[in-house]
Amino acid sequence: MPHHLTIQHRSTQQLTSETIDTTADNLLYAGVAQSTITPPIGFDISGPEFSDRPAQSIDHDLYARSIVLKSYGETVAIVSLDVWSIADWLKRRLTQAIADASGIPQQNVIILSTGNGASPPLWRRETDLPTRYRNYIAYLPDIVAGTALEAALSLQPAAIGTISTTFPNLSCFTKPNQPENLETERETLQLTVIQSSDDSIACLLYNLACPATIVGNTQSWTADFPGVASSALENAGIDNAIFIQGASADVKPFDWWDGNPSISHAERSPADAQAFGILIATQAIRSAPNAITRRNAQIKTTTSEDGNIATLRIGDTTLISLDHSQPIEFSANLRSSLPDTKLLISTNPSIAEPASANQHDDTLAKAVELANQSGIYP
What we know:
The protein is an alpha+beta fold. The protein contains 8 helices and 18 strands. The protein has an 8-stranded mixed sheet with strand order 7-6-5-1-8-10-11-13. A 4-stranded mixed sheet has the order 15-16-17-18, with helices on one face. It has a two-stranded antiparallel ribbon with strand order 2-3.
């Protein structure tokens, strides 16, 4: 794969059996798309730290980004939203809309959130949403489903590969001086490259354990550092760059550990998020071309009975998506339990009370079980 990345433009076409239901062979195909989901000016910005306040401007649009993958007759969709979190009732509505629009089975649709702190309040109960969000919520499933459908309509031959790189001192633990294995996990940037037949990158899934809450008490819509990083990667020629927030319940950006009297980037401005995002994008651009990709990549999904954990295997790469936030130790234990697996770990941030040690153990055991069921070890 060349280090110079070129954009491959794809046009939407009429949905036919040739584009989704069948392919020329049993190898991997991929399609990508994205749509803006920024609420209007005047709508409340909400997040985990600060009280709701009306948006007065747009610093960075919020997006829904989609990739649809097909191999050996199995089709899946990964859809990411630039929001803090997504409530179960809304996730079900989005999944149903995507399934209805594209024909992809609901169990093969994985919805992710970036953990963006300047977000619409999509994690709340529907009855607790501000009145002016009613129309937004009614229309959002159509936007997201349309994005997934556009991706499904643009399937092209693809290859996939995963590679890791590190980011020393880019983020920190809330409490410093953690064990070395946890430090290593915190500093890992996992990159899954979906490559087109012309050697361009159709999609980059980049996985980092750090909350997207750099920007402070802003009155502007912003996607925080994931928005900056994804835009930079897409400007560099990657068609679609999807941020996956890892297990980061005990992680903070920069040197913002608890009790630090002289933190850097104390202004928490868009410029601080810009610096963080550009660092990630630069490292990703340097490392992604080194991934070894292959087209012969089978797909399989598994989901827990309560729907709180989903796994997606694509070749030798496995995405494990959790509906609740987790500490770095969870990722480290999961990776050590699945040593021969290239893991992407996604957590849906939550403002709920932290899980107990027993709950963490139960979640870990279930995630390992599901990963094994997905056929990681062929």
